[in-house]
Design goal:
The complex is a heterodimer of chains A (204) and B (216). Chain A is mainly α and 204 residues long. Chain A contains 10 helices and no strands. Helices cover 78% and strands 0% of the residues of chain A. The longest helix of chain A is centred in the last third of the chain and has 24 residues, at 129-152. With 216 residues, chain B is an alpha+beta fold. Chain B folds into 2 domains: 8-57, no CATH class; 88-215, Jelly Rolls. The chains are: A mainly alpha (204), B alpha+beta (216).
Chain lengths: 204, 216
């Protein structure tokens, strides 16, 4: 059972501290860890007992409806259970991780209520830092790759791609410069793009 | 170097999940580019989390068989979340990689007027317009002012107005009665959110007032 602060101490703490006790934080981390490692039902039940009433209370403040508050509890705790392995203690406290899961779900719920949209944007707005860094690496890698692919194009196609995409010429300017019809530029560019796409698909 | 940032208050409201999608997109995209604001947002998440979980006077409730129903589901075993794909948008002869927050916007519809092109991102929030805005080389948006706020997040390139020069990642918030006329030499791509249509104030530009509704 997660150690709860006795009621009598609660008031004192409310006026002196805005923090959960360190032991409480540790207890939450330990239990989430046990859920992740061994699907520990006792540990998860304790997390549920601790968090469910607080999530419901937060949901009532936010949505003013019991049904929605209960949906928030159910979906948040479901995600905590199912995604427990994704929690990484080196990046923060388990209680904060659970908070962000609740925050994300409630953002999507609000959007559904206010705009009637079920676009589940929260996962795009709050991705983890790690994931973004990986994405960036890949982008750099990708632009490096594209440059080397452009080098491999046949000379005439390469010229068109470089002038238009790297030197920012318009197709007409390039046609004038090379004294060829605009249609020739267009078809070289089309061939070059098809080839680049093919190279990228093969290499990735 | 990013010089213009969202306020602490906005970071906090965003971290609480209480900003509308239009502004949340801008916050997320800025945070992706700005390690300082990313750290601040994380700090607010931790503080907000403690505020909620330390509440001891919550009423208990009957959760029925919710706990059992949840534990009947299988756990996911995959540790790494899948890497999000970012999306590109093609405008004015260039491909731009959009921030992660925009990865659902795969089919932006660009429409143009002179050097200015716009792709609407959000139009379902009351009075709010959110768009990607591309201004071509040497383009200028005629001097205008807003009745509400205008947020501009610079995603690529740079532009200047009467107040200064802005660079990639800058989060530029203009309130109420100020007017400005952004100009860009090299061209730029922005994400812009407004809560009231633009109103052009000067000379010939006045004939452009219908344009105000097109741009934003």
């Amino acid at each position: 059972m997660i150690k709860l602060i006795p009621k009598s101490m609660g008031n004192v703490l409310n006026s002196h501290s805005i923090k959960l006790l360190d032991e409480e934080q540790q207890a939450i981390n330990d239990r989430l860890d046990r859920v992740a490692k061994s699907q520990d039902r006792v540990a998860f039940s304790e997390l549920f007992k601790f968090f469910a009433p607080k999530i419901r209370s937060h949901g009532l403040n936010k949505f003013r409806q019991e049904v929605m508050a209960m949906e928030l509890v159910q979906e948040t705790m479901m995600l905590v259970w199912r995604k427990a392995v994704q929690f990484d203690a080196s990046k923060g406290k388990a209680s904060t991780w659970i908070y962000t899961i609740m925050r994300n779900y409630s953002f999507d719920m609000l959007r559904k209520i206010q705009s009637n949209k079920e676009d589940l944007m929260s996962e795009d707005l709050w991705t983890t830092i790690d994931v973004e860094e990986e994405g960036d690496d890949q982008d750099h890698l990708q632009s490096r790759n594209i440059l080397s692919f452009i080098d491999e194009l046949p000379a005439l196609q390469k010229e068109v791609v470089q002038e238009i995409y790297i030197n920012d010429k318009t197709q007409q300017e390039l046609a004038d410069q090379l004294s060829v019809p605009l249609g020739t530029i267009k078809s070289r560019l089309r061939l070059a793009m098809a080839k680049l796409r093919q190279m990228m698909e093969e290499k990735s | 170097m990013i010089k213009f940032h969202p306020s602490q208050h906005m970071l906090k409201v965003f971290s609480a999940g209480d900003l509308p999608l239009s502004l949340s997109l801008a916050m997320s995209a800025h945070i992706e580019l700005c390690p300082d604001c990313a750290a601040q947002a994380e700090r607010f998440e931790a503080l907000l989390s403690e505020d909620i979980w330390q509440e001891h006077d919550v009423e208990n409730a009957d959760f029925g068989d919710m706990l059992q129903a949840i534990m009947a589901k299988p756990l996911e075993t995959q540790i790494k979340p899948t890497v999000p794909a970012k999306v590109m948008t093609h405008i004015a002869g260039k491909d731009y990689l959009l921030p992660t927050a925009f990865r659902q916007f795969k089919e932006l519809k660009w429409s143009g007027f002179g050097a200015i092109s716009r792709a609407r991102v959000i139009s379902d929030e009351q009075n709010v317009r959110a768009s990607l805005l591309h201004i071509g080389k040497n383009g200028r948006i005629p001097e205008h002012h807003h009745k509400g706020y205008e947020l501009t997040l610079l995603l690529s390139g740079c532009f200047s107005d009467e107040t200064g020069t802005y660079h990639k990642g800058d989060f530029i918030w203009i309130d109420g009665d100020k007017s400005h006329s952004p100009y860009t030499e090299e061209g730029c791509l922005c994400y812009a959110v407004q809560d009231a249509p633009l109103h052009f104030v000067r000379g010939m530009s006045k004939v452009l007032n219908p344009l105000g509704n097109l741009i934003y």
